[in-house]
């Protein structure tokens, strides 16, 4: 099975530092329809998100679960769903394997869901997102939403972005063609 790995904040929803209130979750335009179209290809659409706010004591795993449930509800209302959602609660200094740019979350999802990483793609707004995908052989797509516009030069300099788009919705046709 192919996978489409999506960073959450800045890719799926508006970037809000340490988002922990489900009422502040705002989907970016066209995201629900894009996720639905990607899921219809048979690919597993999976969120992989660093959530160091938990490790910093800014919010709890219960708060994150509430935001995730709100996202699931919003997608369900649009007639679609994610195959899974994975997060890393650790600080950048923790040295864990799950925190992007390391690929632990992608590897866990691949194991859990039967995803072939080398036939999959990751979409993110940071070089760290794309580096995690590249580490396991994924195709990589940068979006300019969230931190993407500010990260674009670094992504290009590191040779990480196989493609760059203004948003996930703008990448839809490209991703569908890539998955075909």
Give structural notes.
By secondary structure, the protein is α/β, with parallel strands linked by helices. It contains seven helices and six strands, in the order βαβααβαβαβαβα. It has helices at residues 31-40, 52-55, 61-77, 104-113, 127-135, 148-157, 168-179; strands at residues 3-6, 44-50, 84-88, 121-124, 139-143, 163-165. Strands 3-2-1-4-5-6 form a six-stranded parallel beta sheet, with helices on both faces. It starts with a strand and ends with a helix. The relative contact order is 0.21. The mean pLDDT is 98.
Which characteristics define this entry?
alpha/beta, six-stranded parallel β-sheet, 7 helices, 40% helix, 180 residues, globular
The strand count comes to 6
Helix and strand element order: EHEHHEHEHEHEH
**Gross geometry:** globular
Strand order of the largest sheet: 3-2-1-4-5-6
Rg, rounded, reads: 15 Å
Q: Report the sheet-strand fraction.
A: 15-25%
Average the pLDDT over all residues and give the rounded result.
98
Low confidence ranges:
none
Instruction: Please give the count of helices.
Output: 7
Largest sheet: 6 strands, parallel
**Class from secondary-structure proportions:** alpha/beta
Tell me the distance between the termini: 12 Å
Helix content: 40-55%
